[in-house]
Design brief:
Shape: globular
Structural class: alpha/beta
Helix content: 25-40%
CATH architecture of the largest domain: 3-Layer(aba) Sandwich
CATH topology of the largest domain: Aminopeptidase
Number of strands: 20
CATH superfamily of the largest domain: Zn peptidases
Largest sheet: 9 strands, mixed
Number of helices: 15
Distance between the termini: 41 Å
CATH class of the largest domain: Alpha Beta
Amino acid sequence: MKIKLFLLLVLATLQISTAQIKRINKTIDRLEAELHLRFLTADELKGRNTGSAELLVAGRYIAEQFRRYGLIPLGDAEGDFLQRVPLHTTKPPAKATVSMLEQEFRGGEDLGVLSGGNTSVEAPFVYLAALEGYEPADIQGKIVVTVLQDLRGSAGNRAQIEALEEAGAAGLVQLFGPGQRIPWQLVLNYLNRERMSVGEIGAEEERGMLHIWVRDSTGMMVQQLKEKPGASGSINIEGAEKKMVEAFNVVGKIEGRDPKLAGEHIVMCAHYDHVGVQSGEGQDSIYNGTRDNGIGTTGLINAAKYFAKYPPKRSIIIIALTGEEKGLLGSQYYVNDPKVPLEETVFAFNIDNSGYTGTEVVTLLDTNRTNIDELVYQAAKEVGLGVIGDRLPNQNYYERSDQVSFAAKGVPAVNFKMAMTAFDERISKYYHQPNDEFDTVDLDYIHKYWKAYIRSAELIGNWNQRPYWIPGDKFEAAGEALYKEE
């Protein structure tokens, strides 16, 4: 009898799964989905660069698809889907110098400015072995000097830098010593290009503590600072320019159908920006961004259509994010100004791509990170695909896409990518290249990929368990802090 009941349960489950896949197939019209992708990656949108008129057109197009499908608008204006993201560009200073220990470091040679406007500061320098454990009185009004430890974080630990500013430090100089894996010239090229940041220009000016990297080619600066504690010096920055940029996230909501679980929200997100026109004129200079991330954005539009018609038990927030290519800017802004409180957001399911190396599997960044893996495996299997985890852990892909903005706040989050087993010619041929166009992708595989994304979200949205971090995960503590009152 028990075996018979078990078999009946399995059969019923398979029938439900088959019915829901048929429902997805019927709802997601192949031609319509391809038309979305064709439009978003057309030459006329000129690579959808953040700050461009073409990206605004793409955002409005996505918003009107959300309206067409009946999503609840969560934009800033009543009845609209656009959430303004205050961004500004920063042009490197025309002149920058740091005078320290009778040496002068110059911008464009052995100095790079990360933050801080035009200014002139004279103050004592104080060396800290680490950006923690100090007394605020010891650094107030002084320029803190420390050794740059981790280039991957690029700007250092943001919370520690903000703590220095709150303690009254006049600035931060980090020493780029010998032995770094990345050549100084590459770092300098990055720091000397125009950059984009979140924030109003006025607010940035008020809180923008000076933050500078200086090349210590001999590795002797720390010892000299220790020998001359409190030595005074100066920092001078001239000719830096900032300009506001018009940018928007596109945000809509689908109310869950279960009275209790509707209060738990799943974020489905994708960035819709790319890198624009790089140089020259004509088609070959337009970086169309089909794989990165026209396919992901179209997957999001497909999800909006499906879930508006067949909502799961949990509510869904669908967000097309801006500024990912400029440093995850749209997602950083959203998690600090969410349209639904983050403590009511139980999962973030980001769809983003670099390309694909095969057509048999999808990639989940990362497996064994949250407790939803089995659901993704099930969804992929139902559409004829397998699942792999991160095959390139040294590339740190998890922390290079928008899901990490949610994870850092404690929201369990993963990235749903196409098959990526290596960063080889199959990826590099198209990744951030002008030939990443619509007619270069395997549409049969792409449609399976979209359906696996939708089906995975459906299973998560209806799951009788709550998504959460695997114990011991890097972001588990942030999750405990976020949901502590529940």
